[in-house]
Write the structure tokens for this entry.
Amino acid sequence: MDTFLMFLLVGALAQAIDGALGMAYGVISSSVLLAFGVPPATASASVHGAEVFTTAASAGSHVLHKNVEWRLFLPLAIAGIIGGVLGAYVLSGIDGDVIKPFIVVYLALIGFYILWRGFRKARPRRLPTWTTGPLGLIGGFFDAIGGGGWGPTVSSAMVGAGQEPRRAIGTVNTAEFFLTVAISATFVWALVTGHWEDAEALTDHAAAVAGLVVGGLLAAPFAGYIVKKAPQRVLTFAVGGLLLALSLFQGLQLAGVMA
């Protein structure tokens, strides 16, 4: 299959899941790129370049359908940008695989906790505004390092802490646009200053990035509507189940069982 068409399908599927559950676009897209032998920093830069477009469309959809908790949005976005810029600079100089085992363990633990809350039929809680700052800082750093850790880290933590899934997903996806722009700008800066030595590999994967952009844009506008209409408990189980699936997939990759 042509590279562009294959990554168009990957981008559409990944964005459909990400828009509905607040995570997975970066993880799925990065995993596919890495499976094709793309270096970690190049994969992360490629995915974030594509996400500049897809997150803009997804954010607009969530705003339109009133899925955003605005009191949590600003501190989350600001802290996410700081963490993302730091992570992008670090990743362009080291191997991002060092931190992946910790992310896998985190995803598994949070996934089990969210499923437990779903079975208990736990009621949503109003999260304090101050909690989103540290959460955004960590999520932004993991996102740049892992090529897609923002949603799994931040959406899962907010849902696990009791935030209404629809509001958590909408707020996190909307803040992700600003985070993605900041991370992409940092990769460009690292390229210009010579800090990023493997940046020339980007030009070898232009068709894949273009496919991710087009596929993501096709699916992104439906994100807000899906989250608005889906029952809260269904979203809770879906988020928890996806986290366990992602942690299992990445764990198998780290163990060398899967490419």
